[in-house]
Amino acid sequence: MNNLTELEVENLRHIIGGHGTITNKLENYAQSCTDPELKSILQQDAQAAKQAQQQLLNFLG
């Protein structure tokens, strides 16, 4: 693990939380979407946000 400062850890947690929020919103938008192409795009973007969140979590572990 990298030696992160307290401020860096705080910023990282903020960014990780933001990715979680984006994931939830995109998943909700996809569920309510009736256009199959848009629904697919929203689901893919939600998955990408979730993967980014997991990658960022590795910096805290």
Characterise the protein shown here.
With 61 residues, the protein is mostly helical. It has one domain. It is built from 2 helices and no strands. It has helices at residues 6-32, 36-60. It is elongated and about 45 Å long. The protein starts with 5 loop residues before the first helix and ends with a helix.
Question: What labels would you give this structure?
Answer:
mainly alpha, 85% helix, elongated, Spore coat protein
List the helices and strands and how they pair.
Layout: H1 6-32, H2 36-60
Can you give me a brief rundown of this structure?
With 61 residues, the chain is mostly helical.
Determine Rg (CA atoms, Å). 14 Å
What's the count of strands?
0
Q: Give the ordered list of helices and strands.
A: HH
**Low-confidence region ranges:** none
Biggest sheet statistics: none
Strand content: under 5%
Helix content: over 70%
What is the end-to-end distance?
Answer: 7 Å
Q: Mean pLDDT score, rounded?
A: 94
Structural class: mainly alpha
Number of helices: 2
Number of domains: 1
The shape, in one word, is elongated
